[in-house]
Amino acid sequence: MSQNADEEQEYEERREELVEHISAVRDLDEDVLDAIRSVPRHEFLPEDEHDRAYVDMPIPIGSGQTVSAPHIVAIMADLPDLEAGEDVLEVGTGCGYHAAVTAELVGAEHVYTVEYESDLVESARENLADAGYGDVSVRHGDGREGWPEYAPFDAAYLTCAVPEFPDPLIEQVREGGRLLGPVGVAGQELILAEKRDDELDEEHHGEVQFVRIQG
């Protein structure tokens, strides 16, 4: 077996160990665990961080940003109950890892993601394409404005904290659609909201700590 093949097998084994760790502490849908199992997180990280790719922790990706710990990505992929073919908006592309996990659930062509940092936009596009998720749509812009050209979305989520869900995101989610993200100023809570008659029916899912939205 070649060195590259040995490395890939090792990464696969470490992903499986990560999935076992996550599933031992959180009851998640099997499709979500399969998505974590499938996405090569190391391919979305700086090369000097590959050794830590399958440790359940956030990792710096440049521009003052981090990629969330895998268990947080898994929880956020599980809460909206995403189904294949649903159109999903992500605010905060980062390195592209979370978008790839979402793509495993709904299909890459159904994922639309917006990133404020221009350097991260280019690297995310490259990461996604190299990992086989090139059909994910990535845009440089202010995520608080969403992506109206592709609305309405079945779900939208933020990988960065906001004081409250931005009005444009609420408007761009269809009736019955879901919004998810870390919300708060002094402290943050992970909130899942369902849109009903232009109002949000909220569920609170515990305290979290995310980088605040840029711009």
Approximate shape: globular
Task: Supply the number of structural domains.
Answer: 1
What's the total helix number? 6
CATH homologous superfamily annotation = Vaccinia Virus protein VP39
Radius of gyration: 16 Å
Quote the CATH topology.
Answer: Rossmann fold
Mean pLDDT: 95
Query: Can you name the CATH architecture?
Result: 3-Layer(aba) Sandwich
EC number: 2.1.1.77
InterPro entries: PCMT, SAM-dependent_MTases_sf
Enzyme class: transferase
Subcellular location: Cytoplasm
Structure summarized in a few sentences:
33% of the residues lie in helices and 26% in strands. With 215 residues, it is an alpha/beta fold. The chain is globular and about 55 Å long.
What can you see in these coordinates?
This protein is of the alpha/beta class. The chain has one domain (3-208): 3-Layer(aba) Sandwich (Rossmann fold), CATH 3.40.50. The protein is 33% helix and 26% strand. The chain has 6 helices and 9 strands; from the N terminus they run ααββαβαβαββαβββ. The strands form 2 sheets. The protein has a 7-stranded mixed sheet with strand order 5-4-3-6-7-8-9. The protein has a two-stranded antiparallel sheet with strand order 1-2. A hairpin with a 2-residue loop joins β1 and β2. α2 (30-38) crosses α3.
